[in-house]
Each structure stands twice: as structure tokens, then as C-alpha cells.
Amino acid sequence: MPKQRVEFGCKWFDVVVQDDKYFIVKEPKEINGAVVVGVRRFDGVLHVAMVEQYRPAIGESSLELPRGRIEDGQDPVDAGLRELNEETGYTAKPESAQIIGKLHTNNSLLASAVMIVFAEISDTPQGELDGEVQVVSYYKPEELFGLLGTKITDSHTIAGLTFARQRGLL
């Protein structure tokens, strides 16, 4: 059994030292977030909902899939649908929502994972935006795959798009 001690702790995470040589960030939940690949059709053509928001850690805006924390008592699908609504103003068709993958965003440092959710977006906006997002836009899947590594560098987004494509959803 590895020897562990908490070096630093706050309400969001603990920094744990394991065997006096590894630093691990542990969040309260093993699955702490959900990323949602939300799709809708415009004139019969599939598009993916994307949001642009400023990320202080990288000092710039990031084009990414809607995502967020899983609240207490919430399952990953419900969290993904809530985030879709909060960040885009749209709801999803509940029967279309499904988990399509699991992602450890940095498994050398972070102990937690996020779930990737796929959902079809309803046609009518039904919600107030949470104020975190600067821009909501829709892209054809092939446009998004052309932006990977340049305009899209967020690992959650790259994984979400890849899982959806692998499953034939994009």
C-alpha cells in the first residue's frame, strides 16, 4: 500500500504526496465532470455546439465543448445536459443523451476523470446563459477536426469529438 499524506487541501481538491516522490491532485469525486457533444441539424446538416470562453490558466479564450462539474447527487448525463443548457441556452432531447466515453485528462497528476456525453439539441432555446461563455457557435464536424491542435487545444474537446466520431455519431 502506498504511503500518502495531504500536502495541501481546499474545498476543490487535495494535493497528495505519495511515497515521498509523487504529487497527485485528488478531487472529492472520482468522476468530477461532464463534457457534452451536443449536436443539431441546420438545413439537414449536422453541426456541433461549441463555446468560447476565457481560460485564465492559459491566458486566452478557448474554443471547446460545453463542460462542467458534476454537482452532488447528479449523474454525468444530467450534469452534461445541465452544462449544455447553462452554456448554450439550449436543452437536449433526453432520449438521445448517452455516455460515450471516459477521460482521465492528465493521469500522471490528476486522480479524477470526466465523462463524455452525447446529446441531440432541441430546436428552441430554453434557458439563461451562465455568463461564463463569450460566444456560442455551431460547426460542421469536418470543420472542427480541421481545427484540432490549432484553434482547438482543449483535451476534453479533442477527446469528446474523437469519441463521437469513433462511435459514428459525427
Shape label: elongated
* Assigned CATH class: Alpha Beta
Give the H and E element order: EEEEEEEHEEEEHH
Helix content: 10-25%
Determine the number of helices (DSSP H or I, runs of at least 4 residues).
3
DSSP summary, beta strand count: 11
Counting structural domains, the number is: 1
- Taking all Cα atoms into account, the compactness measure Rg is 17 Å
The CATH topology: Nucleoside Triphosphate Pyrophosphohydrolase
Summarize the structure.
Its cofactor is Mg(2+). By secondary structure, this protein is of the alpha+beta class.
Description of the molecule:
- This protein has helices spanning 76-88, 141-147, 155-166; strands at residues 4-9, 14-18, 22-26, 31-42, 45-55, 60-64, 67-69, 90-92, 98-103, 113-125, 135-139.
- It has a single domain, classed as Alpha-Beta Complex (Nucleoside Triphosphate Pyrophosphohydrolase).
- The strands form two sheets. Strands 4, 5, 6, 7, 8, 9, 10 and 11 form an eight-stranded mixed β-sheet that branches.
- The protein has three helices and eleven strands; from the N terminus they run βββββββαββββαα.
- It is elongated.
- It starts with a strand and ends with a helix.
- Strand 1 and strand 2 form a beta hairpin.
- The model has no long low-confidence stretch (mean pLDDT 93).
- The chain has 170 residues and is α+β, with helices and mostly antiparallel strands.
- It comes from Pseudomonas nitroreducens.
- Belongs to the Nudix hydrolase family. NudK subfamily.
- GO terms for molecular function: hydrolase activity.
- Pfam families: NUDIX (PF00293).
- Its cofactor is Mg(2+).
